[in-house]
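Page 47, continued from p. 46.
Same chain as before, 210 aa.
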Amino acid sequence: MNTKNGNDAYTLTSVDDLAKIYAKPAPQTATKERPYISEIGREFIAASPFLMLATSNGKTMDCSPKGDVPGFVQLLDDRTLLIPDRPGNNRLDGLKNLLANPKVGIIFLIPGMNNTYRVNGSAKISTDPELMKRFEVGGKPPRVVIVVTVEEAFNHCPKALVRAKLWESADRPTAAPTHGEFAAARDGKDAAYAKEYDAKYAERLKTELY
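Result:
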């Protein structure tokens, strides 16, 4: 452990430091990852309408939400995931990261369930017409398809979601900043601006999801 004065004295700097705090994982936990999507993992992905995709260009990080109807992520085979990229804010942070560094981390979630399924691997960005066709909605294809080569896949314990009471609506805050309020704070505007922004955005969503 770092022994410098100040806060750095409490900064962990080695695996040995971690070992002094955390117990060894149970054998079945330490070896549960697989280099492919298992049959039960396939079932979980088919039921999932939402995932978080982590990327890095080697200097900065990004974690991007992706969501659609359950099963919106398809498996080409047990080592290849296909993720459609729908219209968004066009910042393209994650996609730009993939151009520099193909490594990705993915967490699949299912509302109401505290289990998650994690996939780590490498990804590429494709506009293959056959892949694009698979994800058409109302005749509209995705912008691109993210093709993930699976390197590790495993389920994750539910403790974090249980502690957060993530799906228990009674425990959620009664008020949290809206998209419009974030926009107002960004633009130096007032509550009326936020309310109008939210109303217009709700209308835009009716035609801009696909």
